[in-house]
Give the backbone structure.
Amino acid sequence: MGELAREAARHFSELAGERAARERQFTVALSGGSTPRAMFELLSREPHAREVPWRSVYFFWGDERMVPPDHPESNYRMARESLLDRVPVPDGNVFRMAGEAEDPELAAEEYSAQLREFFNLNPEPGSELPRFDLVLLGMGADAHTASLFPKTAALRAGRRVAVANHVEKLNADRLTLTPATINNARNVTFLVAGEEKAPALKSVLEGPHDPETYPSQLIRPSEGRLLWLADSRAAKLLTRP
Ligand code: 6PG
């Protein structure tokens, strides 16, 4: 996990530096999970704390649980505590998903509208998609990513930007970016650590195409770079290097 988080922090720092130098803006969608937390903590320390052009970094989320922003399960809270409170990011650069909302569908619509506005897209739903500079993703042992869980409606969300997704096995609703939005990014980076992820990683990368069962297979950026950062325990069943 340590080496993986270090590599991920370096990757973030490099992309942010390059992009912000050219465009004065670096847009990233964060994920929840244990590996991102370790990476965020590293980003909040030297050398990254000094090197990353924090004022030009704009933070969004790939998914969120339906909980208030101060809840222990909030992905926003995790990022705030491990990173955002420790670096000079202006509050106006942080666009969290409203996990506290009573109506998840409405919260997803509002987040989609917020993204369309930020990225200067046609306000008409279904027309254009945001293009993030980086979408960071984790993967669960069931091959879910963001809150795209096996056999859930969000896997078939078409060209919507973000949706609410009911996850039967968690008996909960989640907010998530859609596969179409993630696939429109310039860079999509998976962080996968631990032996319990090995069978899922093998199925996603080397198994038959079955995205209803292995949702991470849906992630294939159309004009972007896909990077898998996995530790040796997660990668142990892979046959290709
Ligand atoms: C979440 C996530 C989710 C996560 C994976 C992997 O909010 O739960 O965004 O998709 O990234 O479940 O999580 P770990 O890295 O903790 O195993």
Summary: The radius of gyration is 17 Å. The mean pLDDT is 96. The longest strand covers residues 162-167.
